[in-house]
Write a structure and sequence with these properties.
8 helices; mainly alpha; about 200 residues
């Protein structure tokens, strides 16, 4: 049980469900409840499948096809930057830049729930505690994230329309900062690996 909690805590921080919640609200603002629930299911399945495949395949499979964690960081950072930049500069709603049909998969499932931080953390945890404990911690943490998102509607009602918009703008600024951090860390990691 102790090893489970040792795996759970770093993954809880890496998933950061409460930190991602404003971004989820911003992406799904104005959508029908049914559509939001479909997006939640899609995000849960995508985040879980990607994380579990990554645990099983691990760095060996990535090295085989020439993809590194640094590549994940840069690609995820660029995707998040485009979404944040569009909302902050043009004022367009983010769902216009994201296909509503696949929004649950990308960007919510990956990279917002299962992003570079989660993938990197799972690599370290598999090495320390094994696949089964890490997989259990991943499943519980992704379940927690989706549960938090499930209550986005009452939270959004509590904030009101203006409060949600302000929170969405602030979240976009943080999202842009996270994107810059991911890109920076990815570039530094690539430079470090090659020099």
């Amino acid at each position: 049980m102790k090893t489970f909690w040792l795996s759970f805590v770093p993954l809880f921080i890496a998933v950061d469900a409460l930190g991602v919640l404003p971004i989820f609200i911003g992406l799904t603002m104005g959508l029908e409840v049914h559509r939001r629930r479909v997006i939640l299911l899609q995000s849960f399945i995508t985040a879980l499948v990607v994380a579990l495949i990554f645990i099983v395949v691990g760095p060996v499979g990535l090295r085989f096809i020439g993809i590194t964690i640094s590549d994940f960081m840069i690609a995820g950072g660029i995707l998040l930057m485009v979404i944040a930049f569009t909302d902050l500069v043009t004022g367009e709603k983010r769902q216009r830049m994201v296909d509503i049909e696949t929004m649950g998969a990308v960007p919510i499932g990956v990279p917002l729930i299962t992003g570079p931080a989660v993938l990197t953390t799972t690599l370290l945890l598999v090495d320390a505690y094994g696949m089964l404990i890490t997989a259990a911690a991943v499943i519980v943490n992704i379940g927690i994230a989706v549960t938090v998102f499930w209550f986005a509607e009452p939270i959004s009602r509590l904030l009101g329309d203006n409060g949600s918009k302000v929170l969405s703008k602030v979240a976009s600024l943080f999202l842009a900062s996270i994107a810059v951090m991911l890109i920076r860390k990815g570039i530094i990691a690539i430079i470090t690996e090659h020099f």
